[in-house]
């Protein structure tokens, strides 16, 4: 028997540049399913799996099971194809086949932050068990789509101390941003990265009902193996919020406690770190749709954030993420019709005339809740020269208020339509990337509209994700305007109405104005926002 370290090196040296089934020119280099191991398994959980190995595992499982099909759904900045595996009773991995099945669709992705690698490893283990015939019951009502390595470029930029304090893998982990230096979990509205544009396309083509995003969290020392969050933007359709908070998440949490003995709960941190003015509480993160799960919710889909506990061992984090995914999919299988119905109802609901949030603030729970606090020990990281934290089996319940939801602090009425000058090419391109339906005025049209008169326009001094976020102040006024033929029309009674509102309202804090895509137009006319809106009417 070779020692795991030697085995890993030997296997690594056998790797050849692999290609995926879709678009590949050579035969797949599939291995043997019975001996298939992930890199953590081969290295006593010291190392994480590389991109080429992920591709090889994908090829192996697909070659071993008629229920698994592989394709790619786009490219990274450095041109790596993004693997997608489809598990279902379908002909192939194409979106057409998946949609034609008529089944409820679940999408799971790992590695959006490539230092947070346990989700990727969990999905590789899931692929292997699917190839071995497990979870065949999912096939009756579901198609499951698995993208194990979303930030594939970041995954390859291994650093031995890539995540401070995280309990391994001690052989290093990828970097947080993609190869452009962008945090992919801040890119879902501005779509500056090919990865985010690829995912936006996947969401349009494969249209998953549920989308799960796997992370690792290194904040407060608590006693949960995984913390989770539903979409947090107050504009999320209420039925999605209710399905998650009243049914799916409690049921999954209870099942995991029963079957695995581990605690799962809503994502949060308890201060310090928030300054002395903040009361002790369990604080969630952010409501803006630049974040994956919030964006999924803004598209009327059921988004679930998963954050494995950074100080649990790498092996436990992988298993905790895997069990979470499996249990959510079990729920989706048992409730597939309800899941599909909630999504369909959200799509059919028009937001026109409703008051929607432009900005929001954390909202305190009415009652205190029990939060399970934990403890860690500091242990040396033998290779980085630094230290890391190791979870201790300590659970200390503490009552505190929960700041887990947001309420609007500024609202606007959703109009019937926005009208975008045809020369705002970048705005129109972004809408197209999001999959928003846009039509054009066929003739010059005189209309009573609302236009936003600007009283101030400021860009943040600090550069953030390659931008200086812009904030407009001002107010709407009515105006009679003649819009030329060719003006783009974006109606809000489309399924993506909520997203359109957040992208195009001038006061939105995560819209195309925030991300500077209207800067040029605002330089030319500092007084009036170039996109006008009509509160009613057919266009
Ligand atoms: Zn993360």
Structure overview:
The chain has 539 residues and is α/β, with parallel strands linked by helices. The protein is built from 14 helices and 19 strands. Strands 1-2-4-3-5-9-6-7 form an eight-stranded mixed beta sheet, sandwiched between helices. Strands 15-18-14-19 form a four-stranded antiparallel beta sheet, with helices on one face. Strand 6, helix 8 (238-260) and strand 7 (264-266) form a beta-alpha-beta unit. Helix 5 crosses helix 10 (314-334) and helix 8 (238-260) packs across helix 10. Mean pLDDT is 94; it is low at 1-28. The protein binds zinc ion. Zinc ion (ZN) binds at residues 113, 116, 185, 215.
Report the C-alpha radius of gyration, rounded. 24 Å
Low-confidence stretches are 1-28
Helicity range of the residues? 25-40%
Largest sheet: 8 strands, mixed
How much of the residues is beta strand, in percent?
25-35%
Instruction: Specify the structural class.
Output: alpha/beta
* Average pLDDT figure: 94
Strand order of the largest sheet: 1-2-4-3-5-9-6-7
Number of strands: 19
Distance between the termini: 72 Å
Shape field: globular
Bound molecules: zinc ion
**What is the number of helical segments per DSSP (H or I, 4+ residues)?**
14
Can you describe this structure in just a few lines?
With 539 residues, this protein is of the alpha/beta class.
């Amino acid at each position: 028997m070779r020692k795991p370290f030697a085995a890993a090196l030997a296997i690594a040296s056998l790797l050849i540049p692999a290609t995926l089934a879709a678009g590949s020119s050579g035969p797949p280099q599939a291995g043997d399913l019975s001996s298939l191991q992930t890199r953590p398994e081969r290295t006593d959980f010291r190392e994480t799996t590389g991109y080429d190995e992920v591709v090889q595992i994908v090829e192996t499982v697909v070659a071993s099971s008629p229920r698994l099909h592989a394709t790619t759904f786009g490219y990274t900045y450095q041109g790596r194809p993004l693997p997608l595996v489809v598990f279902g009773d379908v002909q192939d991995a194409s979106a057409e086949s998946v949609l034609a099945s008529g089944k409820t669709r679940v999408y799971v992705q790992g590695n959006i932050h490539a230092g947070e690698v346990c989700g990727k490893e969990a999905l590789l283990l899931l692929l292997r068990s699917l190839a071995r015939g497990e979870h065949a019951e999912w096939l009756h009502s579901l198609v499951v789509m698995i993208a194990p390595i979303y930030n594939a470029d970041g995954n390859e930029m291994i650093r031995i101390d890539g995540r401070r304090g995280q309990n391994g893998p001690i052989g290093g982990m990828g970097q947080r941003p993609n190869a452009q230096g962008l945090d992919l979990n801040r890119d879902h509205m501005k779509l500056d990265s090919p990865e985010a544009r690829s995912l936006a396309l996947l969401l349009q083509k494969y249209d998953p009902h549920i989308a799960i995003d796997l992370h690792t969290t290194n904040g407060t020392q608590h006693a949960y193996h995984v913390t989770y969050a539903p979409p947090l933007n107050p504009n999320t359709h209420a039925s999605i919020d209710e399905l998650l908070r009243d049914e799916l998440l409690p049921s999954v949490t209870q099942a995991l406690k029963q079957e695995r003995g581990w605690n799962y709960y809503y994502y949060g941190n308890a201060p310090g770190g928030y300054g002395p003015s903040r009361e002790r509480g369990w604080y969630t993160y952010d409501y803006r749709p630049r974040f994956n799960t919030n964006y999924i919710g803004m598209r009327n889909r059921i988004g679930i954030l998963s954050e494995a506990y950074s100080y649990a061992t790498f092996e436990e984090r992988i298993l905790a993420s895997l069990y979470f995914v499996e249990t959510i999919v079990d729920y989706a299988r048992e409730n597939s019709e309800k899941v599909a119905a909630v999504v369909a109802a959200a799509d059919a609901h028009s937001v026109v005339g409703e008051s929607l949030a432009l900005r929001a603030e954390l909202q305190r729970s009415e009652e205190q809740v029990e939060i399970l606090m934990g403890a860690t020990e500091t242990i040396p990281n033998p290779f980085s020269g630094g230290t890391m934290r190791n979870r201790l089996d300590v659970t200390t319940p503490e009552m505190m208020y929960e700041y887990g939801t947001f309420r609007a602090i500024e609202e606007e009425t959703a109009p019937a339509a926005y009208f975008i000058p045809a020369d705002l090419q970048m705005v129109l391109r972004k809408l197209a990337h999001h999959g928003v339906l846009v039509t054009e005025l066929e003739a010059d049209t005189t209309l009573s509209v609302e236009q936003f008169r600007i009283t101030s326009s400021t860009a943040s001094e600090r550069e953030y994700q390659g931008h200086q976020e812009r904030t407009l102040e001002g107010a709407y006024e009515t105006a009679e305007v003649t819009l030329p033929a060719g003006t783009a029309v974006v109606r809000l009674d489309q399924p993506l109405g909520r997203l359109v509102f957040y992208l195009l309202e001038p006061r939105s804090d995560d819209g195309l104005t925030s991300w500077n895509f209207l800067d040029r137009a605002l330089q030319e006319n500092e007084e009036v926002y170039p996109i006008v809106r009509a509160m009613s009417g057919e266009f």
